Amino acid sequence: MGIIKGIAVLAAGAVAGAAVFAGVQTFSGGAATPDFDKVGDYTSTAKNVVRFKLAPSNDQLAKCMPKVKVEVAVALLTDAKGFDVMDVKVTNAVPDTSFTVFLLEVPASPFGAAEYIGDVNTDKKGNGTAELKLIVEEAFSSTIVGKDRVRKELNHVGMWFADPAGDDFCLGKGAGPVTPFDGDNEAGIQAFNSAPSLPKAPLP
Predict the structure, then answer these.
(1) Beta bridge partners of 99
(2) Would the keyword Signal turn up in this protein's UniProt record (predicted)?
(3) What is the pLDDT of residue 8?
(4) How many Cα atoms occupy the beta-carbon half-sphere of 106 within 13 Å?
(5) Which phi and psi angles does 118 have, rounded to 5°?
(6) What is the distance between the alpha carbons of residues 94 and 107, in angstroms, rounded to a whole number?
(7) Residue 55 in contact with residue 62, Cβ under 8 Å?
């Protein structure tokens, strides 16, 4: 089960008839989605659209970015197009900063299996968006452990400061660890994750 099915299971009791919210926008991928401001932590609005939010990964980051919002919407298009479309929208974050985006087995440390799927870059106001085309609903990692092939479900989303110095504004210059969550193997700490939207991690 991937992240989207996990969210749908948690949200099922709150969603009746899969009605679509007012204020509908349109994905470039072709699916209709509601306005980000009209949803809660996670909401399944239609059979082919799922939306949820990421939160700062710790209390210190939350205090340093008190107005930040990270919102994710996924159009489930694999059957029609061969991939899903994930839109990530960041507002009121750190200006002129790059974040890496990962699908994760577990939202917080030690994270488990992880897949690097893209970047979000903020402008001078701390706002940024990205559209990512990939398998999301059925995302998983497969590797060999001993003599057995092991499958790990990627049911969560996490974002890291792409530059190790990206978290200096909050932790202090050089105070944060260098982590491997970027293509050059050097990133800052995890900035946001989906733990509040998927509290029963990892999902079955």
Answers:
(1) 120, 161
(2) yes
(3) 44
(4) 5
(5) 165, -175
(6) 21
(7) yes
Q: Report the percentage of the chain scoring pLDDT > 90.
A: 60
61-to-77, 121, 160, 191 alpha-carbon distances in Å: 34, 18, 12, 7
Strands 84-91 and 69-75, bridge-based pairing? antiparallel
Rounded CA-CA distance 184/200 in Å is 32
Reading the block at residue 143, the tokens are 């590797």
The pLDDT, as a whole number, for residue 59 is: 95
Cβ–Cβ < 8 Å for 153, 135: no
**Residue bearing tokens 């919407």:** 73
Based on DSSP, count helices (H) and strands (E) in the chain, helices before strands.
Answer: 4, 13
As given in the structure block, the two tokens for residue 41 are 């932590």
**Residue 166 corresponds to which tokens in the numbers above?**
């990206």
- Tokens representing 66 are 């008190």
3-class state of residue 182 by DSSP: coil
- pLDDT at position 43 is 47
Nearest CA to 136 out of 94, 67, 194 is that of 194
On whether the CB atoms of residues 41 and 73 are closer than 8 A, the answer is: no
Take residue 11 and report the two structure tokens written for it.
């949200």
Phi, psi of 122 (to 5 degrees): -90, 155
Dihedral (C-alpha) 19, 197, 11, 132: value to the nearest 10 degrees? Answer: 50
Pick from 32, 38, 26, 73: nearest CA to 52? 73
Phi, psi of 132, rounded to the nearest 5 degrees: -120, 130
